[in-house]
Amino acid sequence: MRKIWTISRSVLVGLILVLIVSVILQVSIPNSEVVTNGDFEQGSIGWELGDRAANDVKVVDEVFHDGAGSAGGNNSLRIVGPGEGYRQDWTLRSVTPETHLTFFTLLKAVTGESLPQALFHLYFYPDYNPIRYHIDITVTLENRDEYSESSFDPDPGTYQGGISVRFNRNDPNSWVKISLDISNLIRKHFPDRFDPRISGILLGSAEGGIVYYDDISIATDRIVNPIVQLGFFLYYNGIWQVVVGALISIGISALVKRIYERANPRTKSDDLMRV
Ligand SMILES: [Ca+2]
Questions:
Q1: H helix or E strand, kind and range, residue 59
Q2: Residue, of 62 and 12, whose pLDDT is higher
Q3: In this structure, how many other beta carbons lie within 10 angstroms of the beta carbon of residue 214?
Q4: Between these two residues, 235 and 83, which has the higher pLDDT value?
Q5: How many CA atoms lie within 13 A of 262 on its CB side?
Q6: Quick one: which of 98, 134, 257, 266 has the most CB atoms within 10 Å?
Q7: How far is the CA of 41 from the centre of ligand 1 (A)?
Q8: What whole-number percentage of the chain has pLDDT above 90?
Q9: CA–CA separation, 22 vs 230, rounded Å?
Q10: Domain ranges within the chain, ordered by starting residue
């Protein structure tokens, strides 16, 4: 019984230490921007043309998003007609809590063509799974619900899985800001995967007309190391359940120990005699 008590106490002390270290590391490590040259002010540096590129993909200075903090800027990415634009791939980055994606897009209709749609892909791996999933963000001028969101499950080895998000009813010829909490979105649709990691983005155009992109940013809240990762695991898997569970098990073992000692009153004197 004494052994159970000691083990329970050690587990609780270990958990508390891990949490303290995790919290200290989370506070001490700064935020980081994942996207290189997301404002296109350095031309195409950091970007590659997609495999199925649209006919006309170019960094241009005819329009740009004049965002606060971007010091005005001059350039944006322009995709004419349907097809892929630029993509950017990274070494895998953990999706820490509060990881935010923001980007700006401007849709310009062209007479005689279908209405323009921006199609933005963010690739991720939900866990240590070799299948790459994706978040598809579609921005349209369509007169449908302003926002909709759904997930599609993968058939492992056959189809990729992911999340589809649509922003409708946007104004043509004006910059639309898209902002998503990637961490919440992935964990909402794939709650059993506690370590999602992002691997890249692809900016595209799904229909006719012209699609512009500018000021693309993915800010991870913190760089993750294994100890912090364990903290996230506990956080996303009911830390209070873990703590309360540990306390209950300590309480039960203490109770059992007391009952045992009452039933065997000679235990203590035996111990003394041994000493
Ligand atoms: Ca710009």
A1: strand 56-60
A2: 62
A3: 25
A4: 83
A5: 6
A6: 134
A7: 5
A8: 50
A9: 8
A10: 2-26+228-274, 31-221
Of residues 164 and 2, the one with the higher pLDDT is 164
Collapsed DSSP state (helix, strand, coil) of residue 9: helix
Place of tokens 């990881």: 99
Distance 35 CA to ligand 1 centre (A): 13
In this prediction the pTM is 0.72
- Ligand 1 centroid vs 91 CA: distance in angstroms? 25
Q: How far is the CA of 123 from the centre of ligand 1 (A)?
A: 23
Instruction: Tell me how far the alpha carbon of residue 62 lies from the centroid of ligand 1, in angstroms.
Output: 11
Cα 75 to averaged position of ligand 1 atoms, centre (Å): 4
Residue-level pLDDT at 97: 77
DSSP string covering 147-208 = EEEEEE--BTTTB--EEEEEE-SPPTTS-EEEEEEHHHHHHHH-TT----EEEEEEEEE-SS
CB 104 within 8 A of CB 95: no
Cα 226 from chain centroid (whole Å): 17
- Distance, in Å, from the CA atom of 94 to the CA atom of 245, rounded to the nearest integer, reads 28
Residues 156-182: tens digit of each pLDDT = 666 678 999 999 999 999 999 999 999
Mean pLDDT of the residues in the chain: 84
Name the band, by pLDDT with cuts 50, 70 and 90, for residue 28.
very low
Instruction: State in Å: Cα 197 to ligand 1 middle.
Output: 27
- The hierarchical CATH code for the domain 31-221 is 2.60.120.260
Q: What's the mean pLDDT in 15-30?
A: 65
- Extract the tokens encoding 254: 């203490």
